[in-house]
Amino acid sequence: MxxxxxxxxxxxxxxxxxxxxxxxxxxxxxxxxxxxxxxGTISYIIxxxxxxxxxxxPDDPAHIGALLDAVRGETVTHIFVxxxxxDHSPAVPAVKAHTxxxxxAEGPHRASxxxxxxxxxxxxxxxxxxxxxxxxxxxxxxxxxxxxSIEAVTTPGHTANHMAYAWKEKNVMFAGDxxxxxxxxxxxxxxxxxxxYMESLQKLTGRDETIYFPxxxxxxxxxxxxxxxxxxHRKAREASILHRLGKGETDIxxxxxxxxxxxxxxxxxxxxxxxxxxxxxxVTRGLVATxxxxxxxxxxxxxx
Length: 304
Ligand SMILES: [Zn+2]
Known about the structure:
Structural class: alpha/beta
Number of strands: 15
Shape: elongated
Largest sheet: 7 strands, mixed
Oligomer: single chain
Number of helices: 6
Bound molecules: zinc ion
């Protein structure tokens, strides 16, 4: 189903070593490969001398050590956090303690919507609920360091607090998990929301950054074209769901089996939650009906 997006799954980067994919952008990848993280979470270093770090990564001493080694002899003045999943932000306290840097983010971890009565949050373990930024950024705010200006770009959807960061002078974007080069982003309620996510993708099409550096996977050249593929992919998935519902009332597990062909079995739950995210959006838009609140084991039918 994802064959429509020009993914690039080549990433020639050993864990916990530093490389410089473009002048002024260095990266260090954590050694946390997996079905959700690809080869690992990537921390970025912006500038030289007085630098910023984007996403210090998981609470992994080897990764924190490698990141601090990469900036030895330099001053880390700023830490930017794209979002509060456990593979992105838990290294913040250690890196802040070693560097004294100020921590910037949209805000603490939170869900996109309140839990329904009786609903348990399947994503509880993935959120870094201890995270608190020193400075909460608003959309469009610009933070200036030594040789760089970073614009905060709110991009909710993957999480409610997701923030991408545009480096104005270089015309590049640190995209976090909003847009990735190797796979589609997971949008899983209640932490994520499909309507927010689609809006955040549309928002990027009005911007002019040409290269994205994602939280997982290789740099994305021709970023605008890539985002347009991402949007088309979501619309195609929505159309598949509606097509399936056109054959009669059914549940999410049946839809996942029908439309996610060749799915890695480790991603079955995530595919179910992504489909639930579409259902919530379709119910809100009045296209699909269900009994009560949309839920992972509810029955769905075309409205009207
Ligand atoms: Zn994430």
